Amino acid sequence: MANITLDDAPAGGIALAETSRGTERLHRAVFIGLGILLVIAPFVVYPVFVMKVLCFALFALAFNLLLGYGGLLSFGHAAYFGMAAYVSAYAAKVWGFPPEFAILSGMLVAGVLGLVFGALAIRRQGIYFAMITLALAQMVFFFSLQTPKFTGGEDGIQAVPRGYLFGLFNLGDDRTLYWLVAAIFMAGLLLIYRIIHSPFGQVCKAIRDNEPRAISLGYRANQYKLAVFVLSATLAGLAGATKAIVFQLASLTDVHWSMSGEVVLMTLVGGLGTVFGPIVGALVIVSMQNYLAGLGSWVLVIQGVIFVICVMLFREGIVGLIAKKIGKPL
Amino acid sequence: MFELLGIPPQALFGQVLLGLINGSFYAILSLGLAVIFGLLNIINFTHGAQYMMGAFVAWMCLNYFGINYWAALLLAPIVVGATGIAIERLLLKRIAHVDHLYGLLLTFGLALIIQGLFRNQYGSSGLAYQIPAELRGGQNLGFMFLPYYRGWVVVASLVVCLATWFLIEKTRLGAYLRAATENPTLTQAFGINVPLLVTLTYGFGVALAAFAGVLAAPIYSVNPNMGADLIIVVFAVVVIGGMGSILGAIVTGFSLGLIEGLTKVFYPEASATVIFIIMVLVLLVKPAGLFGRAA
To answer: Which residue among B105, B269, B288 sits closest to A307, beta carbon to beta carbon?
Structure first.
């Protein structure tokens, strides 16, 4: 478990003082570049597509926080994403919540679910952890399947009203909604960046790399693991809740294990344990799904092939490879 | 006719039998996972797809080549096991040196490929596979009706499970295997071909999955998705039992199938989730699993 990124991490987290200042400047430049892209994007590309990418990018970022920096491979992240989508869709449609509260309630439920599932899953390590999270997520899937009063069963919750943000901005307009989604994405990214570079994030990395040693230094490894798990689940919930408002739909697809697989794939393609990798990975996979949507089951095969290629030849991912080339962590 | 807790015995024992059948699939599949995990340290996510392949090879044998069930029972594990050996040699071997989680991701990708290919070719509605003529019909036992084929599945699985246990715990080859599981480097130093052993072990585990697939073919329809959901339940079974003990895997598999069958009778709403709920309880009470060694 300990060294999922150790062999492949571009800089292994051992940045010297002078290079770390250079890295900071580089990251600031990337953030500014990303901000500019976000502003231009809706005028160049179909905004709903960009919003889809942003929702999945946030989902992948949340997943990567857990795997890349906590060293914990969750194979059931669809549970938090999908459950938050259901809750926010239900809150917006049935209870008539305004969008901001609908999203917040989805996030909250995902966080609580993450707390319960995380507390169970961290009782086992490594491969068992992945199997437990997968099994628990499957339980959520069956729950969603069997409670059609809440989830709408096979139909899902459709025609979720987008509503008015703070009672002022009409989110029915794609452009207006886009700025909200872009803001949520950016806030999520900055939060994750802050978490990774905080003392808390450093301890998480230490636990990832050598758990017994971190424990011997007096850190309560399990509490850190649980905390990073809850953070990751909450942010995955934020992504799922936002997605439900954008597409006005929450369905069984969102809680299915294949969704958990997709987020793993996005993170792997972009670069495990890199800050910006999941964004690139989400862009690649979502675009691929968009262009190949007519191919039916072949999408599954192509995703599988990408998995195999990434694991066999390309474990750094796209951003990891760039980081290696320029010799700085990204 | 007497009734048990308001449930007619026909329904009760029918579900118990179905539970035992599911339990035998859980047992064979978790046994294969445990054997593979012991030596390769990876969780074989492709296991469900390989179970499905076993059923499909049996179906193809019958429909394309006219090979009957009994020959398929032998042939399908060999064919699917051979593909497993190819996967191990071509792919898994090359990533043995990196973190074992990559093995999980690789086998997950392979499962997607296999399922996608079969879905493209055969659709997802499922194909029928006839029960072999020798095992059609059944016997009325008074308290229940026993279809011969279902009885055969339970007996055949038990025999295969016990034979595997015997092979691993009581034979020389099994002793090599256990030695290599404990310490591959030292075992190799004694002149035992560990890489070959690893390849054969993977092939054997995969063949077990394919065998279960052939057994399942006449009961459930042959369907590209038949392994995908099953494998997740088997993961829960493995978490409950722990992968340290062969007999443990067998006992856990059968008893969980039985519990699932009983749940279907008394509280059908929970039958899909009961194994996951038991997993949660076991994690709370005995985190290492019922038969597991503490990590």
So the answer is: B105
Q: What share of chain A is helix, strand, coil (3-state, %, to 5)?
A: 75, 0, 25
Check A308 against B110: CB less than 8 A apart. Answer: yes
Q: Are residues B97 and B111 in contact, defined by beta-carbon separation less than 8 angstroms? A: no
Strands (E), A244-315: none
Compute the count of residue pairs across chains A and B with CB atoms less than 8 Å apart: 133
B116: nearest CB among A146, A301, A310: A301
Is the Cβ of A295 closer than 8 Å to some Cβ of chain B?
A: no
Say if A210 is an interface residue toward chain B (CB within 8 Å): no
CB atoms within 10 A of CB A175: 9
How confident is the model at residue A127, as a pLDDT?
83
* Type of residue found at B202: Y
Give the tokens for residue B235. Answer: 């993961």
In sequence order, which residues have a C-beta less than 8 Å from that of residue B183 and are 6 or more positions away? none
CA angle B15, B18, B20 (to 5 degrees): 110
Q: CB pairs under 8 A, 24+ apart, for A34-43?
A: A34/A186, A34/A189, A34/A276, A34/A279, A35/A186, A38/A182, A38/A185, A38/A186, A42/A174, A42/A175, A42/A178
The whole-number pLDDT of residue A273 equals 87
Q: One-letter amino acid identity for A66?
A: L
Helix/strand number for chain A, H first, E second = 16, 2
**B201 CA: distance to closest CA in chain A (Å):** 19
AA identity, residue B178: R
d(CA A30, CA A186): 12
DSSP calls for A152-168:
-GGG-B-S----EETTT
Select the residue from A210, A262, A300 to test the B interface by mutation, using most B Cβ atoms within 10 A: A300
User: How many helices and strands (H and E) does chain B possess?
Assistant: 11, 2
List of residues 6+ apart from B201 with CB closer than 8 A? B35, B36, B38, B39, B40, B177
Per-residue pLDDT of chain A (330 residues; tens, 9 = 90+): 444 444 444 444 444 445 677 888 889 999 999 999 988 888 888 888 999 999 999 999 999 999 989 889 999 999 999 999 999 999 998 898 888 899 999 999 999 999 999 999 998 888 888 888 999 999 999 899 888 888 888 888 888 888 778 877 777 788 888 999 999 999 999 999 999 999 999 999 999 989 899 999 999 999 999 999 999 999 999 999 999 999 988 999 899 998 999 999 999 999 988 999 999 999 999 998 888 878 877 888 999 999 999 899 888 889 988 888 888 888
Q: Where are the domains of chain B?
A: 21-223
In Å, what is the CA distance from A274 to each residue of A51, A203, A270, A283, B288? 22, 17, 8, 15, 32
Q: Are B36 and B202 in contact (CB under 8 A)?
A: yes
